[in-house]
């Protein structure tokens, strides 16, 4: 059955054979030995084949994701009979990026990239302490605050520290919604023992937006036992919410008691200084030149931290027509338009340009044939926003991104909707991009 799946997958990408027969041949020789959740384990005939396919990892994962209609990653191993023929040192070790991705982490959500001020310094110190000594400092660590205040960033930074120390630690970041969905799926598929083994044996579990499980009896029951199993084994629990435990309605008393048993930290709305620092960090991450005085003007005008990145991208898109620098005059004109409520008419090219700026890819790549994961995601987000923001029909969207027909657009719409539901980090990305589409944000 596994081989049948692989043969059908290879048949779907037969154009690879013409473009790169060596690549296709090595891929054809690989054997799928296990499919678990969103991971396909491939057995390679030799170390050379493994190393070759490792270089093609992003492309293979992108192709599998498209074929299976869900985010899919691969594990590469050497065929059992070949391991003795190779040196003992040839066992495959996943890269740090692979480890972080499997744990559900965003690469840039580290302590180094987190801006600290009086509004979040206690939470920052507590998170660092938990990262250094998980299971012994504050358990659970409960971070709460408004949207865009940095809860998710801090929580993931803890996971980065733990995995940097030991990449084989059982670490997982998920949303309350994702926990619930996976539990429901395990009940439907009669695989709850596997679900419990996955979650209850973790060294560190981070659940974002834990308030989502309130009022859902079976989910709360399962999380109660998950919580107890991890803590009793010396593991660490980190939770984030938009409110403290005592304000979460329909939360079971025993869970409320557990959540209140560690350290509860309120992250307050970022002040002017912190907003300026966040803006400068975002600009540096995206290689956008901006003077600190100009950044201060933006931070003074934009109080909502989620809108900071959107505003930055809007300004960058405007500057792209000139010398690519965000000048004081450009910022003044931008906010003058806002204050006088002069909204520019959004065009399809505006959307594609801003999405490309966010993902740091070119418009020609988005409209081209590349299957690189970042480019594919930028292409799908562009199609999604062209539909939702401008109301274009499927054929018009397909034409604008140079796709053959409307089925690709339908796939993109479903993919982005699913990612929005399941991936908190992606939801934040889409929010930032959407905010950049209108100067009135």
UniProtKB/TrEMBL annotation:
Residue span of region Domain IV, binds dsDNA: 320-441
GO biological process terms held by the UniProt record: DNA replication initiation; regulation of DNA replication
Sequence segments annotated as region (Domain I, interacts with DnaA modulators): 1-87
Main subcellular localisation: cytoplasm
Subcellular locations according to the entry: Cytoplasm
Binding site for ATP: 148, 150-152
Domain AAA+ ATPase: residue ranges: 137-271
InterPro entries registered for this protein in UniProt: AAA+_ATPase (IPR003593), Chromosome_initiator_DnaA (IPR001957), Chromosome_initiator_DnaA-like (IPR020591), DnaA_C (IPR013159), DnaA_dom (IPR013317), P-loop_NTPase (IPR027417), Trp_repressor/repl_initiator (IPR010921)
One Pfam family recorded for the sequence: Bac_DnaA_C
SUPFAM superfamilies found in the cross-reference section: P-loop containing nucleoside triphosphate hydrolases, TrpR-like
Keyword field: ATP-binding, Cytoplasm, DNA replication, DNA-binding, Lipid-binding, Nucleotide-binding
Domain Chromosomal replication initiator DnaA C-terminal: 347-416
Keyword ATP-binding set for record: yes
Gene Ontology cellular-component terms listed: cytoplasm; plasma membrane
GO molecular function: ATP binding; DNA replication origin binding; lipid binding
Family from the record: Belongs to the DnaA family.
Stated role: Plays an essential role in the initiation and regulation of chromosomal replication. ATP-DnaA binds to the origin of replication (oriC) to initiate formation of the DNA replication initiation complex once per cell cycle. Binds the DnaA box (a 9 base pair repeat at the origin) and separates the double-stranded (ds)DNA. Forms a right-handed helical filament on oriC DNA; dsDNA binds to the exterior of the filament while single-stranded (ss)DNA is stabiized in the filament's interior.
The record's note on its domains: Domain I is involved in oligomerization and binding regulators, domain II is flexibile and of varying length in different bacteria, domain III forms the AAA+ region, while domain IV binds dsDNA.
Subunit-structure text: Oligomerizes as a right-handed, spiral filament on DNA at oriC.
Protein name: Chromosomal replication initiator protein DnaA
Organism: Candidatus Roizmanbacteria bacterium CG_4_10_14_0_2_um_filter_39_13
Source taxonomy: Bacteria, Candidatus Roizmaniibacteriota
């Amino acid at each position: 059955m596994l081989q049948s799946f692989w043969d059908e997958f290879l048949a779907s990408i037969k154009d690879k054979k013409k473009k790169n027969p060596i690549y296709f041949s090595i891929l054809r020789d690989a054997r799928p030995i296990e499919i678990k959740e969103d991971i396909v384990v491939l057995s390679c005939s030799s170390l050379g084949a493994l190393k070759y396919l490792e270089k093609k990892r992003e492309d293979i994962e992108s192709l599998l994701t498209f074929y299976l209609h869900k985010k899919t990653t691969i594990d590469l191993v050497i065929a059992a009979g070949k391991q003795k023929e190779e040196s003992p040192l040839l066992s495959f070790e996943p890269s740090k990026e692979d480890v972080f991705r499997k744990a559900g982490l965003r690469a840039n959500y580290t302590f180094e990239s987190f801006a600290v001020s009086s509004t979040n310094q206690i939470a920052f110190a507590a998170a660092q302490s938990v990262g250094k000594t998980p299971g012994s400092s504050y358990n659970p660590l409960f971070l709460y605050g408004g949207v865009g205040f940095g809860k998710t960033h801090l929580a993931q930074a803890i996971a980065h520290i733990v995995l940097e120390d030991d990449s084989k630690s059982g670490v997982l970041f998920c949303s309350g919604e994702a926990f619930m969905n996976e539990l429901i799926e395990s009940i439907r598929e009669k695989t709850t023992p596997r679900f419990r083994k996955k979650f209850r044996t973790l060294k560190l579990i981070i659940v974002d937006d834990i308030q989502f499980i309130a009022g859902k009896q079976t989910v709360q029951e399962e999380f109660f036992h998950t919580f107890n199993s991890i803590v009793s084994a010396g593991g660490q629990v980190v939770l984030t919410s938009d409110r403290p435990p005592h304000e979460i309605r329909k939360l079971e008393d025993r869970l409320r008691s557990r959540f209140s048993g560690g350290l509860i930290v309120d992250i307050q709305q970022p002040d002017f200084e912190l907003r300026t620092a966040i803006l400068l960090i975002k600009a540096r991450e995206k290689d956008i030149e901006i003077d600190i005085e100009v950044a201060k003007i933006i931070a003074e005008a934009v109080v909502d931290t989620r809108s900071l990145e959107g505003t930055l991208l809007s300004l960058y898109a405007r500057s792209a027509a000139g010398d690519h620098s965000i000048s004081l005059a450009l910022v003044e004109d931008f906010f003058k338009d806002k204050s006088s409520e002069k909204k520019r008419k959004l065009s399809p090219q505006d959307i594609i340009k801003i999405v490309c700026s966010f993902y740091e890819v070119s418009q020609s790549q988005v409209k081209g044939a590349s299957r690189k994961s970042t480019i594919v995601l930028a292409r799908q987000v562009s199609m999604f926003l062209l539909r939702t923001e401008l109301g274009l029909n499927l054929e018009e969207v397909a034409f604008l991104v140079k796709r053959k027909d409307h089925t690709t657009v339908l796939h993109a719409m479903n993919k982005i909707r699913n990612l929005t539901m399941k991936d908190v980090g992606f939801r934040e990305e889409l929010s930032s991009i959407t905010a950049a589409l209108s100067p009135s944000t």
